[in-house]
Amino acid sequence: MQVHQLERDASLEPVARILIQLRPQFTESGLIEQLRRQIDTMGYRIAAACDDDGNVLCVAGFVIQEKLAWGKSLYVDDLVTDARGRSIGAGTCMMAWLKTHARSLGCRQLHLDSGVQRFDAHRFYLREGFRIASHHFSIDLDQDH
Fold first, then answer.
1. Is the sign of the CA dihedral 55, 18, 42, 126 positive or negative?
2. Sign of CA dihedral 26, 56, 49, 94
3. Cα–Cα distance measured from residue 82 to residue 59, given in angstroms and rounded to the nearest whole number
4. N or C end of the chain: which has fewer CB within 10 A?
5. pLDDT per residue as tens digits for the range 18-68
């Protein structure tokens, strides 16, 4: 299994087929359009873990950021392993790559958020050495409050 970062002009269809499992509110074409927009405007980057035949097994979308609270860090926006290929090490391989990549860029930390209902993901992150460091709060601004 190998992980590689996609080039800016790479085809996004193979990774979109995996990412849509995490973001089902999108159509595949809508997801690709959103990915392109984030790549072009926000510095969004995509890494893919592939098997020996080049099939995408796990995808991570991330940004490099700098915050007063954390310093320079790699923030994982999206991380998903293909439902048909879980528990074969793709997520672990991706996480090792993300940690190494973050260090190579001079990042002090790696961050991600995870939905409160994603218990399997939480177990994985804790096994990977993450700690629960804060609560994340949000509000929908298009609703009356």
1. negative
2. positive
3. 8
4. C
5. 999 999 999 999 999 999 999 999 999 999 999 999 999 999 999 999 999
Nearest to 87 by CA among 46, 47, 130, 121: 121
* 17, two tokens: 């087929």
Length of the chain: 145
121 to 15, 80, 113: CA distances (angstroms): 19, 9, 10
Burial 105-127 (b: 16+ CB within 10 A, else e): eebeebbbebeeeeeebeebbee
Could you tell me if residue 40 is left (phi over 0), alpha (psi between -120 and 50 degrees) or otherwise beta? Answer: alpha
Q: pLDDT (tens digit, 9 = 90+) per residue, 22-34?
A: 999 999 999 999 9
Distance CA(12)–CA(112), nearest Å, equals 22
* Torsion from C-alpha of 126, 26, 41, 44, nearest 10 degrees: 30
* CA gap 61, 46 in Å, rounded: 4
> What does the block give as tokens for 136?
């994340």
